[in-house]
Amino acid sequence: MxxxxxxxxxxxxxxxxxxxxxxxxxxxxxxxxxxTKISLAFNELGEEGTKAICEALKQNKQNKIxxxxxxxxxxxxxxxxxxGAMHVADMLGVNGGLTKVSLALNELGEEGTKAICEALxxxxxxxxxxxxxxxxxxxxxxxTAGVKHVAKMLGVNGGLTSINLSxxxxxxxxxKHVAKMLGVNGxxxxxxxxxxxxxxKGISLCGIQRDQTTADFSHKNLKPPDAILLASDLSxxxxxx
Length: 241
Prior knowledge:
Blueprint: E1 9-11, H1 18-28, E2 37-39, H2 46-59, E3 68-70, H3 81-92, E4 100-102, H4 109-120, E5 128-130, H5 143-156, E6 162-164, H6 171-182, E7 190-192, H7 196-201, H8 224-234
Parallel strand pairs: 1-2, 2-3, 3-4, 4-5, 5-6, 6-7
């Protein structure tokens, strides 16, 4: 069954398979030619298990069928933190089939985030990237230090259409740094950055004030990135027309 090309999705979400399970999955990936989605979230794969899986995906780079890979963590990192992120980055540098990758809550840190972002500067096929952090206080990307690498990547990557950076303690400075890059990324149509923080702190990304009641955007030649910033501001204002 596990070697059957008719299997399109391998979902082992939260099964606590650990490193041994990751090694087994790595062995199976090359012979499961029909897979379009692999979900190994919440499994404590560790660096070793993550490395094995990424090596398998690198060797299988000619297979363009696999589109989604979920390696998200939960209470702790799933991929072994920054060390595991290095292997994911290496894989993303050569894999031309993946369109969605989830690395949320993985304690990537600045080092791991930098590696991922540098790989994505060259990868034009990935459309969705999930690197959110913990809403209660733990940044996934290394806070404002890591967001600089994300912003740099967004400035040159023309493939991403969606990125989730919420829960990463970007604060105003970090969020505006990313927002500036959104203006030159014409492909991005969805960006979650501040989540509840914007409302709590009253952060404005494009100048709309919280007590503003009117706003005229006609004849402004707005692009999708502009709409992202406007949506964030409008969600916390009293604009009625």
